[in-house]
Amino acid sequence: MVARFKSISPGAQLSDQVAQVLAAEIRAGRLVVGEKLPTEAALVAQFSVSRTVIREAVSRLKSLGLVDSRQGSGMYVKAAGFSPLNFDAKFAVSKQAVVQMVEVRRALEAEVAALAAQRRTPADVRRIRQSIAALEQAVQAGGDGVDEDVQFHRAIAEAARNPFLIGTLEYLGQFLRGATRVTRANEARRADFAGQVQDEHEMIARAIEAGDPAVARQAASRHMDNAIQRIEQADPAFWQQAGVQLAQPLVCGLPGKT
Are 146 and 246 in contact (CB under 8 A)? Predict the structure, then answer.
């Protein structure tokens, strides 16, 4: 069974690629409902990646509702169900797909930030501040900051104390991460963009810390609006090169997009 899987290639996020391959197998019926996924060790050997990559990929499948865990037994395939993100292929071009996903984020992140401002605890504020510091350190070290950026928004979601919102963000995780990867790659090309993002994160954090839901909602919404503007202002060469490759996970792995 493991030998049926497609190989992956360097370039895009490895966990994204593994998740896409496994999701395609499930949706095509080659991994049937009720079937047990190969062991972690078997998947590591098949894809030639680390255990961490496999765990991230399987976690993504779980958030998509494609697999479920059975205590002491492993991960099993679930019915694929429906996908609310079934973009028509003709509309799923890279730049437009990224903008669409940021629009989705805008609706979610604004409400999450407002709730976080109402419900945050001192521990929540510390985690948000720590995530900002980690993001700054990652960028200074030459990293893309994608994981740290995602963790910043995750810390805010946890402070909102709404498991349904958190579950929605987890379900959308692979798509939101793809959009974040594109936006951060674009923003890293210009010092003014990077500075704007840093300032916007700080404004959101301050509003949450101050317990001001209206300001937090506005700051989070403005952050997403500005992200769209930065995408629109990107050098055309970015979309002809890095942007296309980085945005590909947004349109792969969906029904009919294998």
Answer: no
Among candidates 16, 28, 19, which has minimal Cα distance to 67? 19
Domain annotation for the chain: domains and CATH numbers: 2-77 (1.10.10.10), 89-250 (1.20.120.530)
List phi, psi (to 5°) of 12: -75, 165
What string of pLDDT tens digits covers the 258 residues of the chain? 444 565 565 545 788 888 888 888 887 778 888 899 999 999 999 898 899 989 988 988 887 788 888 877 888 998 655 454 443 433 334 677 778 878 888 989 999 999 999 999 999 999 999 999 998 998 888 877 777 888 899 899 999 999 888 877 776 665 666 566 666 666 666 667 778 889 999 999 999 999 999 999 999 999 999 988 887 877 666 655 554 454 444 444 443 343
Burial of 131 (0-12, 13-18, 19+ CB in 10 A): buried
Model confidence, pTM: 0.59
What is the spatial distance between Cα 66 and Cα 43, in angstroms, rounded to a whole number? 17
